[in-house]
Amino acid sequence: MATEARKLRVGVFVLAAVAIGLAAAIWLGASRYLADEVRTVTYFAESVQGLDPGAAVKYRGVPAGRVERIGIAPDGVLIEVVMSVDTAFAEKMLREPNLRAQLQLSGITGLRYVEIDRHAGDALERSPKLSFNPPHPLILSTPSQFKAIQEALEDIYGRVMSVDFAGISTDVRATLQAADHLLRDEHVHEIVANLSEITGSARHVVANVEHMTTGLQLAPVVADLRETNAEAKSLLVELRDGETGQQLRGALREVDGLARTTQSFVLNLQVVVDRLNRTTENLEQLTDLLRQQPSRLLFSSPPPPRSRIGGDAGDQ
Asked: Are strands 112-118 and 56-59 parallel, antiparallel or unpaired?
């Protein structure tokens, strides 16, 4: 008799547990469909890798809904993200013109969520243009921070590459060659000799003028003229054989070196941008791997050592 009673109690307990479990499942499923939510949609012009259905939608950091569906937009270019957002939040979002949806990373797992926040300035003008009518109330988007950094680097690289460094270098070299040819020209010696003769003739003229203008106050003027002639002669000699001419040649050589350094900088910048792109690809692969197999972050074996020769060859 005691055995039968025990069996009855066990059966009643099992049935009660099953009933409670079914009721909880029904309640959770029904609450999802009966929740006071509004469907909204946004469109991204970048990869949404790491954003999955069910991901969080936050309004300025506060949970406001979830991602319901991700697909390709009707134009075949943009990515359509349909979101279920709490009605109270949806009313605020649709009323404020400065709100933009943006992809954000969630920790180091590579998972993403949709952050809706206020923006200003250029971010408001970077929403993708739509050539179709959205099926739900639209929340405009803006590129993610990582996408903005990548675009800025590409813009800087494009501006640097648009400068005609080859033409500038050619012009500088032509100027250097012309200056060097001028300083080495044999006619410079003739000019200096002729200037000496002109100076001698000027002295005779000045002497005659002094004799003719005896008693007049022309002595200061004559002295200034002599000093001017002497300074002009000294300047030409300095430009031909003195330190000033050597400094001019050195300055021209430094300008040529600067042009070569600028060309080398542009090439190094191109290499840096290429390495940054490869780093970005490796980072996306790593986040995908960690999202699919998180345990490998702690339990995977260390990678084999890289070959130094192979690494150097790859950099080249």
From this structure: parallel
* Beta-carbon count within 10 A of 101 CB: 23
Q: Is the dihedral of CA 67, 73, 76, 77 positive or negative?
A: negative
Amino acid at 6: R
Spatial separation of the C-alpha atoms in residues 45 and 128, rounded to whole Å: 6
Report angle CA 235, 240, 243 to the nearest 5 degrees: 75
Q: What residues of the chain score a pLDDT lower than 70?
A: 1-2, 7, 25-36, 182-183, 185-189, 192, 209, 212-222, 238-240, 242, 244-245, 294-316
DSSP letters, 23-55, are HHHHHHHHHHHHS-EEEEEEEESS--TT--TT-
Residue 113: helix, strand or coil by DSSP? strand
Tokens of 38: 């509004």
Domain ranges of the chain: 38-142, 166-292
Give 148-162 pLDDT, tens digit per residue: 777 778 888 888 878
pTM of the model: 0.44
Q: CA 186 to CA 183: how far, in whole Å?
A: 9
